[in-house]
Amino acid sequence: MDKENKLSILRHSTAHLLAVAVLRMFPEAKLGIGPAIEDGFYYDFDLPRTLIPEDLPILEDKMRAIIKENYAFEKQEIDAKKAAELFKKAKQTYKVELIKDIQKTLEGTKSLQGDLVPNKITIYKTGSFVDLCAGPHLDSTGEIKADALKLLKIAGAYWRGDEKNKMLQRIYGTAFENKD
């Protein structure tokens, strides 16, 4: 695996770590998306209150605690209908919306052999946290260096980039393989 791809996987895994930390701070948080980007990662949240810059070090501390807990990133493929039920039960409405869109895309899709493609969704479990995600990820949170991550800023972002949708709070961060 090349260095750039490895760094992207590290940052994507760190975005999931941020989501776990946010849910510990705000159990009622609704999750948007959390990809790796060129210089780090971000995750979008629908939260009960507006974040302030002083929240970032608190979230970083929670992330470092989760690193110590060394949870595995467990990949699972499940039926799309079951995935929708799982996220609906967790009141993760944005994830349910994404699953419905994935289902529409997969509906009637055929493989090269002409077989219908199974209506499967990939999720990742990290401790009790579950996220809709194609991956890949590190093997565990313990592989993230606690001193090599930093939450950078908070911004607003419309859900799905559409100004007609709700404004979510986006937390930007970065992570590296080591502190240097």
From TrEMBL:
<keyword id="KW-0648">Protein biosynthesis</keyword>
<keyword id="KW-0030">Aminoacyl-tRNA synthetase</keyword>
<dbReference type="InterPro" id="IPR012947">
    <property type="entry name" value="tRNA_SAD"/>
</dbReference>
<dbReference type="InterPro" id="IPR018163">
    <property type="entry name" value="Thr/Ala-tRNA-synth_IIc_edit"/>
</dbReference>
<comment type="similarity">
    <text>Belongs to the class-II aminoacyl-tRNA synthetase family.</text>
</comment>
<keyword id="KW-0436">Ligase</keyword>
<dbReference type="Pfam" id="PF07973">
    <property type="entry name" value="tRNA_SAD"/>
</dbReference>
<keyword id="KW-0547">Nucleotide-binding</keyword>
<feature type="domain" description="Threonyl/alanyl tRNA synthetase SAD">
    <location>
        <begin position="121"/>
        <end position="172"/>
    </location>
</feature>
<protein>
    <recommendedName>
        <fullName>threonine--tRNA ligase</fullName>
        <ecNumber>6.1.1.3</ecNumber>
    </recommendedName>
</protein>
<dbReference type="GO" id="GO:0005524">
    <property type="term" value="F:ATP binding"/>
</dbReference>
<keyword id="KW-0067">ATP-binding</keyword>
<dbReference type="GO" id="GO:0004829">
    <property type="term" value="F:threonine-tRNA ligase activity"/>
</dbReference>
<dbReference type="GO" id="GO:0006435">
    <property type="term" value="P:threonyl-tRNA aminoacylation"/>
</dbReference>
